[in-house]
Design brief:
This protein is α+β, with helices and mostly antiparallel strands. The chain contains four helices and four strands; from the N terminus they run E-H-H-E-E-E-H-H. Helix 1 crosses helix 2. The chain starts with 5 loop residues before the first strand and ends with a helix.
Amino acid sequence: MSDNKNIDISGLDKASVLSALYNASTPYGTGFKPDHDVMTVEEAQEIIGQRGLNFDYVGFNHPLKVDLEGDNLDAEQFDRNNGYGKAEGAIVELRNS
């Protein structure tokens, strides 16, 4: 599917991609709220409406560091913060759902 840095996200709903990445990420710091550890597609759509498609940290300190504009996702920084291959795994799971 990819070289684990550039992942094809063509044809996928951007809110679904954001939700999948957020849910695959690991929160950092003291702002993490365990009662809100899952992002729905509807919440992701609202965040995109407010912030656009370029993300550093989202929600309660989830490091995404991705730009969802276009059809390719550069996952290098996401994986550096969340684990090698995590972004690709999230996108594969999204495509299979």
